[in-house]
Design goal:
Blueprint lengths: L4 E4 L7 H9 L7 E4 L10 H9 L5 E4 L11 H8 L3 E4 L1 H5 L2 H10 L1 H4 L10 E9 L4 E8 L2 E2 H7 L7
Parallel strand pairs: 1-2, 1-3, 3-4, 4-5
Antiparallel strand pairs: 5-6, 6-7
Length: 161
């Protein structure tokens, strides 16, 4: 079994790592979670903290930084260049706050455990899929606008055992 290692950017609540450990420690005894603020002060530049993850490329960064701010280095580009896989929240999910983040992670957990099997440096979009003519939304992962499970099937990524 592969080890799940989640690294939460400062845009995520520092409570999330503990919530994830508590929920999944029995089924995933080797799970590791860290929050950026355990190592750096809030506001530390992305190139500085992402560099520490470059040595251990098996961390999955969970962030709301989609690289849209023009005055700073682009987190998705840095992650891609360094081979660090990242789960990038859409603005809608990001703005919904801690409780929505927690429930969304729990909802897509079966997909999250497959992420260590995809190529390092891949950007996974984490947001909502709208159904019922926009009246219902559910947490959803995709890569290059392709639903995560379909993308994995196309690339022959194995299912998690």
């Amino acid at each position: 079994m592969h080890i799940i290692k989640l690294f939460f950017d400062e845009c995520c609540s520092p409570k999330l790592p503990g919530n994830i450990i508590e929920a999944y420690k029995e089924d995933f005894p080797g799970i590791k979670t860290k929050h950026l603020t355990e190592f750096f002060k809030a506001g530390t530049g992305d190139p500085e903290w992402i560099a520490i993850l470059e040595k251990e490329k098996d961390w999955l960064v969970i962030t709301a930084d989609r690289g849209k701010e023009t005055r700073k280095p682009k987190l998705p580009l840095i992650c891609c260049q360094l081979g660090v896989t990242h789960l990038s929240m859409t603005p809608a999910l990001s703005h919904d706050g801690y409780s929505a983040h927690k429930h969304a992670i729990f909802s897509v957990w079966p997909q999250i455990v497959r992420i260590p099997l995809i190529p390092k440096g891949t950007r996974v979009s984490f947001g909502y899929r709208m159904t019922n003519r926009g009246l219902t939304r559910s947490p959803h992962l995709s890569i290059d606008q392709i639903p995560f499970d379909q993308w994995c099937e196309n690339k022959k990524i194995p299912q998690f055992p």
